UniProtKB/TrEMBL annotation:
<comment type="similarity">
    <text>Belongs to the class-II aminoacyl-tRNA synthetase family. Phe-tRNA synthetase alpha subunit type 1 subfamily.</text>
</comment>
<feature type="binding site">
    <location>
        <position position="254"/>
    </location>
    <ligand>
        <name>Mg(2+)</name>
    </ligand>
</feature>
<dbReference type="Pfam" id="PF01409">
    <property type="entry name" value="tRNA-synt_2d"/>
</dbReference>
<keyword id="KW-0963">Cytoplasm</keyword>
<keyword id="KW-0436">Ligase</keyword>
<dbReference type="InterPro" id="IPR010978">
    <property type="entry name" value="tRNA-bd_arm"/>
</dbReference>
<protein>
    <recommendedName>
        <fullName>Phenylalanine--tRNA ligase alpha subunit</fullName>
        <ecNumber>6.1.1.20</ecNumber>
    </recommendedName>
</protein>
<comment type="subunit">
    <text>Tetramer of two alpha and two beta subunits.</text>
</comment>
<dbReference type="InterPro" id="IPR045864">
    <property type="entry name" value="aa-tRNA-synth_II/BPL/LPL"/>
</dbReference>
<dbReference type="GO" id="GO:0004826">
    <property type="term" value="F:phenylalanine-tRNA ligase activity"/>
</dbReference>
<dbReference type="InterPro" id="IPR002319">
    <property type="entry name" value="Phenylalanyl-tRNA_Synthase"/>
</dbReference>
<dbReference type="InterPro" id="IPR022911">
    <property type="entry name" value="Phe_tRNA_ligase_alpha1_bac"/>
</dbReference>
<keyword id="KW-0547">Nucleotide-binding</keyword>
<keyword id="KW-0648">Protein biosynthesis</keyword>
<dbReference type="GO" id="GO:0000049">
    <property type="term" value="F:tRNA binding"/>
</dbReference>
<dbReference type="Pfam" id="PF02912">
    <property type="entry name" value="Phe_tRNA-synt_N"/>
</dbReference>
<feature type="domain" description="Aminoacyl-transfer RNA synthetases class-II family profile">
    <location>
        <begin position="118"/>
        <end position="338"/>
    </location>
</feature>
Amino acid sequence: MDELLQQIAAYRQEIENQPANGADSLEAYRIKFLGTKGIVKNLFTEMRNVPADKKKEFGLILNDFKQLAEAKYENWKQQLEGTGTTTVAAIDVTLPGDALPLGTRHPINLFLNHVISIFNRLGFSVAEGPEIEDDWHNFTALNLPEHHPARDMQDTFYIQQNPDWLLRTHTSNTQIRAMEKEQLPIRIICPGRVYRNETISARSHCFFHQIEGLYIDENVSFADLKQTLYFFVQEMYGKDVKVRFRPSYFPFTEPSAEMDISCQLCHGEGCAVCKRTGWLEILGCGMVHPKVLENCNIDPEKYSGFAFGMGIERPALLKYGINDIRLFSENDVRFLRQFTSAT
Ligand code: 2NL
């Protein structure tokens, strides 16, 4: 019995002195002291040999030792897990992550999207068409006579391999295609890039963007055109914007008009931007010419419609206070990063 007690005391010492190092040592410790053939188990087997009057005393000491061995194991294990957790905790998962470099929308795209969202609310849907077009869809169907100056080689980029092909000079080609194949009524808005053979400068470029609109149905009138465009500019430029229509000429509309809005910079007082007139020209429009309807197999006796077209670059320059149209196509990220919202 005394021998056993001495042994237990020695084991206690060993346990207390045992450093809590790596997981392998812990497992060795577990097998040695707490395993099925381990020291604790063996000592309990020794109970048999303890005299009956000492059994209770020995039992208490042995239980105490067992608790010590088990407590050591639990503490050790927790310490190891603690080290593990510390490694993970070195990454503080509550901190915000590194921001992914986000792109920004191109100012032309922002402007187009704003225009589109306004016409969407009036029931117009977006239609897109090819930038390489044939003569019919870009010119002939639009009632541009064969010797019209707009057909001149100077203004149009022709495709070398096929003189019937060209880079579209306006987005009207998309409306022609819609009238040829869609069912009436048609209510579409056609944004896109167009090309003209012009000298590149701060004010003009050989490619730029347009948005055109088309509405064809029975009984569409010039009053519908005026009201639609008036709604548009009020949404775009504010409720106090003034408009005026001036008679104009386009081969594809009759009658034709140009729409001015009161200058957004001087509010009609007269400044350098509006050339002291108080007005800014923003779009051309008119009732679709009966010849154009006929060219698309639409009966002009039954149907009528209006169309309009506007450039994007000029109003975008004004809106964002930019002084050189070339910035839009140079893709300098220091320029592009400055645009984040449509309004
Ligand atoms: C402008 C003027 C305009 C149209 C575009 C159009 C299209 C078809 C039929 C009739 Cl398919 N017209 N488009 C009409 C009037 C004016 O644009 O100054 N654009 C920048």
